[in-house]
Amino acid sequence: MSSQPKYRFGIGFDVHRLVAGRPLILGGITIEHDRGLDGHSDADALLHALTDAILGAVAEGDIGQHFSNTDPRWKDCDSGVFLVEAVRLAALRGYEVGNVDAIIMAEEPKMAPIIPEMRRRVAELLGVDISLVGIKAGTMERMGFVGREEGIACQAVVGLELKKV
Ligand code: MG
Q1: What pTM was computed for the model?
Q2: How far is ligand 1, taken at its centre, from the CA of residue 43, in Å?
Q3: Which pLDDT band, with edges at 50, 70 and 90, does 3 fall under?
Q4: How far apart are alpha carbons 95 and 89 in whole angstroms?
């Protein structure tokens, strides 16, 4: 018999390189910037971290196992597809999203003005109220690869709750 505790928690982390000639897509939002994140899909590191957190909470492996970066189906794909699928997998196991919290680590551009829109979009993808979606952003004080603007990193945690039957 599978174990179904009332709450399950998951953690996710992702990083993508910033390159010229790509749109910057983060939290499902296209952001005005001179460079974008490089990757097989739309490289939305925030949605990838959230997807991994949900998959982790139900011990369903990671995003790479479900959506291979060599599969042509996911080329330039909207990462919202991955997040919605992770929510569906969790629901199949009897869980719904309780809340999420995430950190964007980026030197530029400034994320604060876009965060309300990101929260709205992530809430929509998760199928939860916006009050259950925390997104924060910070710089790395010019240190390391984030500080040198070589990439953007994101971390996320999720709490899942056993669905009432
Ligand atoms: Mg990724």
Answers
A1: 0.96
A2: 6
A3: confident
A4: 9
